[in-house]
Amino acid sequence: MSAPTVALLDYGSGNVHSAAKAIEAAGARVRLTADRSAVMAADGLLVPGVGAFHAVMTALKAVRGDELIDRRLAGGRPVLGICVGMQIMFDRGVERGTTSEGLGEWPGTVRELTAPVLPHMGWSPVEAPADSRLFAGLHDERFYFVHSYAATEWSLEVTNPAIPAPRVTWAEHGERFVAAVENGPLAATQFHPEKSGAAGLALLRNWVESL
After folding, report:
1. Number of helices (H) and strands (E), helices first, in the chain?
2. Which of 55, 79, 115, 153 would suit a FRET pair with 67, their CA atoms being 20 to 30 Å apart?
């Protein structure tokens, strides 16, 4: 069986090379691109993100990445967001008093954590659901975080019994926050799996194997 293809969305975000290497090590063929046909044809789409919520949204829209993400999800095509690439999946982000519109895939607001020290930088444990696909075999591992902002509430409810409920993973730094979400074709992590050593590689392999 040939390796699945993963489009790494190219919209000017930093840290794409380490993400590409990690996805390749997890068993996929990677193409850094914002080409519509390539993004839509790939087995998976990886949305990286570093820096500020507003800046990421601006750069993403400049290459119509918001439309590509929406089209893939509408067709049930897998998407994985990392760090700010996860944050923008929520309705909005609030940074230094400024509110920016997100992609609105999930309800909620990304805001600054209430913690004695920011940013939250380093290795932290997570609380993953027992039936998590992303964290299969990884329930006692730590992952690498670098962030000051996060979603601290989860309010999406699924009432249709035919639709699986989202699997939400939590972590804590000053307060509890959403560390990862698995919601149908859309998955995301607040931490950086590409910087999380063997545990992060195993998580990416779990995602690649699901494509």
Report:
1. 6, 13
2. 153
